[in-house]
Automatic annotation (TrEMBL):
InterPro entries referenced in this protein's UniProt entry, alphabetically: Extradiol_RC_dioxygenase, Glyas_Bleomycin-R_OHBP_Dase, Glyas_Fos-R_dOase_dom, VOC_core
Protein's recorded name: Glyoxalase
PROSITE patterns linked: VOC (PS51819)
Name of the gene this protein is made from: mhqA
Enzyme class: oxidoreductase
Domain VOC: 8-134
Gene3D superfamilies to which the protein is assigned, alphabetical: 2,3-Dihydroxybiphenyl 1,2-Dioxygenase, domain 1
E.C. number(s) listed in UniProt: 1.13.11.-
Record has Oxidoreductase as a keyword: yes
Keywords: Dioxygenase, Oxidoreductase
Lineage: Bacteria, Pseudomonadati, Pseudomonadota, Alphaproteobacteria, Rhodobacterales
Gene Ontology MF, one: dioxygenase activity
Length: 193
């Protein structure tokens, strides 16, 4: 027996409102280029809009001209999607609250998540969106996931409640030590002063 090994998210499809509301939100608020448009091949009464969230993957939205924005929180029952988190740079994150306020979009305000900062708000149909900004850059050749697993191990070993910046710093140092060669025979910390 073998696993069905996945290699990343191909796309996420959401149920949107009408076509223009969907374009206005995904491109006009979140800045995702609108790159592809066709009918929903499983329902001729719906459109299927494709947006690039910034990494070349896809967020797609089923639209229907009979669906209008309702602003009521979507269900969070077991089996439902709770929220969608999108990555933003620190420079953008520092502007999110101000830019949402300018549009009159209610939001959570910045939230400290230890390894990232987050802010939450709802799309026009009440689906919760999170804009997240990592507090670290992984070392060359490593991924955010590589840093997170190392930071998790450090957090558990120290008995800390959640991942904090000290765990991230230790994780990055260990990853660099493992992945980057050095001519030094002794790479332990030193104090030359």
């Amino acid at each position: 027996m073998h696993k069905l090994q996945v290699q990343g998210v191909h796309h996420i499809t959401l149920t949107g409102a009408d076509r223009q509301t969907s374009i206005d939100f995904w491109e006009g608020v979140l800045g995702m280029p609108f790159i592809f448009d066709q009918p929903n091949l499983d329902d001729p009464d719906e459109g299927h809009l494709y947006f690039d969230p910034g990494d070349g993957r896809l967020i797609t939205v089923f639209t229907n001209e009979k669906r209008k924005p309702v602003h009521k929180r979507t269900p969070t029952d077991p089996g439902c999607v709770h929220h969608l988190a999108l990555n933003v740079s620190h420079a953008t994150f520092s502007q999110v609250a101000e830019r949402l306020d300018a549009r009159g979009i209610p939001h959570s305000g910045p939230k400290d998540r230890g390894f990232m900062d987050s802010i939450y708000f709802k799309d026009p149909l009440g689906f919760l969106i999170e804009l997240a900004c990592y507090r670290f850059e992984p070392p060359r050749g490593c991924s955010h996931a590589d840093v997170m697993i190392e930071a998790h191990r450090d957090r558990v070993a120290l008995g800390d409640y959640n991942i904090q910046e000290k765990h991230l710093a230790h994780a990055i140092e260990r990853l660099v030590h493992r992945t980057q060669a050095s001519l030094s025979g002794d790479r332990e910390p030193k104090n030359p002063y």
